[in-house]
Amino acid sequence: MTRYTEFRALGLLLLLTGQLFGPAGRASAQSVDEIDATIREGISRGIYPAAVVVIGRSDSILYARGYGHFTWNPASPVPTPDSTLWDIASISKVLGTASAVMRLVDAGTVDLDAPVSRYLPRFAGGARNMITVRMLLDHTSGLRSYAPLFKRARTRSAAIDQLYLENPVREPGAEPVYSDLNALFLGLLVEQVTKVPLDRFVTQEVFAPLDLQQTTYHPAPGIRRRVVPSAVWRGQPVAGQVNDPNAAVFGGVAGNAGIFTTGMDLAHYAQAWLREGSGPNGQWVSPATLKRFLTRGDKAGPRLLGWDTPELNLPEPRVFGTLISDAAYGHTGFTGTELWIDPSRDLFLVFLTNRTFDPRVGDSMHRLRTVRAQLSDAAVRLVPHACQQELVARC
């Protein structure tokens, strides 16, 4: 048994026994109580019916627990960190699409600073000739934030045709503006370069080498009972279908959304980043390539390649909390999901909810932001020495 496998086995044992692995003592116990209270308050306030939290380090799971029920019906299942699947929405952009591009960059097949038109000839023309692969990843492409392709297309082919009509609305490379279109084009780029569907390539090059056994596009009918519903249609819970209309018209597999995974699988993905690209079966991506994806461009603002970073000067509540370091990076998802990784503390947080399932309050996204901020700070406090020296009083 490898050292990595031993740690994963220990993490599963701790999940089953409900124990906390990590520094013992009053501070850790208080932080656990704070985590529980924060998540349960979100349920009691009607923001989401179900949630899972996993907190860990590069070699261990510190805390993992499920909360609430799949729906507001208390007779529905209780989610678990290791077997319940969630529609992670835009976290798919990192776990699937950006990771696939990173593998191609690592293999020398894709050049980050090459024009996108080298790989997608249909992308050529006008200002689009200036857009590079890097610009799609750090959201400096100049493309608009969103386009309702599903309103003008009923098939994947028609949606792709509509996507190719999009042109930059700002100077490429000038400033970061988050855009779903960037990820949709990156998904097409992966398919064009590899000559295989996006979901097949991501499964082969990301899920399999990282041993993410519960992670998938298109959950099979046999496992849909383990998928938390993220929407209601005609009074019935919807589970196992992507909660994104553009991804849906793409057939459920798109660069911007479509992945379903568990809290523990997402935790193992975070651990590979904390180990500089090392997976359970050896090096998944070279440390040098990983570093390139975590290096901020001159005009990228808070954006890395695929990832976002904490904007510590923003007014509260900050999604990543107030105690996270400026070395951290992460991503959120529309359905109520969150992942952040803090290499300076060797710490990560996975927080999955189904906020989009019939919230009992208005403006659930903003209300969830407060929960995310409080949970992020509690996660840092879980490991007392992880707090920055200048923040000890606040920790």
How do the helices and strands line up, and which of them pair or pack?
Blueprint: H1 3-17, H2 26-44, E1 50-57, E2 60-68, E3 86-87, H3 92-106, H4 133-137, H5 156-163, H6 180-194, H7 198-207, E4 216-217, E5 231-233, E6 236-238, H8 245-249, E7 259-261, H9 263-274, E8 278-279, E9 282-283, H10 287-293, E10 329-333, E11 337-342, E12 347-353, H11 364-381
Antiparallel strand pairs: 1-2, 1-12, 3-7, 4-7, 5-6, 8-9, 10-11, 11-12
Helix pairs in contact: 2-11, 3-6, 3-7
Write a structural description.
This protein is an alpha+beta fold and 395 residues long. Helices cover 33% and strands 13% of the residues. The protein contains eleven helices and twelve strands. A five-stranded antiparallel beta sheet has the order 2-1-12-11-10, with helices on both faces. Helix 2 runs antiparallel to helix 11 (364-381), helix 3 (92-106) packs across helix 6 and helix 3 packs across helix 7. The longest helix is centred in the first third of the chain and has 19 residues, at 26-44. It is globular and about 55 Å long. The relative contact order is 0.17. Mean pLDDT is 91; it is low at 1-27 and 389-393.
Which terms summarize this structure?
disordered C terminus, 395 residues, five-stranded antiparallel sheet, alpha+beta, three-stranded antiparallel sheet, 13% strand
